[in-house]
């Protein structure tokens, strides 16, 4: 049997949006006991520490209006390298955010190892904006588009190849706040989306059954990109862009348990935990609980 090895990488990035505090996400998640909780499910766990981000001044790219474009690109290139090395060496990469712009780096590091990487985008948002469609200029609203090869070339070219993933290999779960340009892109590219409407109507069990079956038949690895704002803000208040009417804690655990049973997940990231906006580290604790379910923790 191959050893089960987990590589934890902290990405204290807050340059993809405007609310301070999300750079403390990795610390909050570690403080919530990630190591202890995941230990039973791995032969070895290496916490590689954090990628150095620094505290630079905000610079808006004059041409594209993207906030912190150069730094977000530079730091994501570093993350991509780290993730690439982990996968290469046979470690499961688990990245702790940081705002969702870090998915650009994670996916750049992972996708080169697969012919058809699948992505589950568990999020209230589509994160499918470009400089042209973004209402905010915040890069954390763009990483899924960037990974599909759509967006500023400084972002899409990270890792030296583009696109990273194909639209038919993506499943978005939990969407309830989509901008106009994102809706157009979803339809144009035929991206599979389970909005809150489908989750209410079909139930999470059916949504996950379909998602797993869909990805199993077309992908050779699946990355889970879980934005804690996919969950309802009453349960996960520690996020920068909360949207009412989200996925429940229980539904989310079921989703993670079903993913564990399916054995399809080959990399993951948990993003947008902002301890300054949180209540007693609740959101970080929920993130750790979801990771535990994803890797095999059972109630009985
Ligand atoms: N990763 C996130 N929380 N993204 C929120 C994006 C919000 C909005 N759609 C924007 O582009 O600014
Ligand atoms: Mn997101
Ligand atoms: Mn979101």
From TrEMBL:
Its cofactor is Mn(2+). GO terms for cellular component: cytoplasm. Mn(2+) binds at residues 100, 123, 125, 127, 227, 229. SUPFAM superfamilies: Arginase/deacetylase (SSF52768). Binds 2 manganese ions per subunit. Keywords: Arginine metabolism, Hydrolase, Manganese, Metal-binding. Its EC number is 3.5.3.1. Pathway: Nitrogen metabolism; urea cycle; L-ornithine and urea from L-arginine: step 1/1. GO terms for molecular function: arginase activity; manganese ion binding. It comes from the Bacteria. The keyword Electron transport does not apply. CDD domains: Arginase (cd09989). GO terms for biological process: arginine metabolic process; urea cycle. It catalyses: L-arginine + H2O = urea + L-ornithine. Belongs to the arginase family. PANTHER family: ARGINASE. This is Arginase. It comes from Neobacillus thermocopriae.
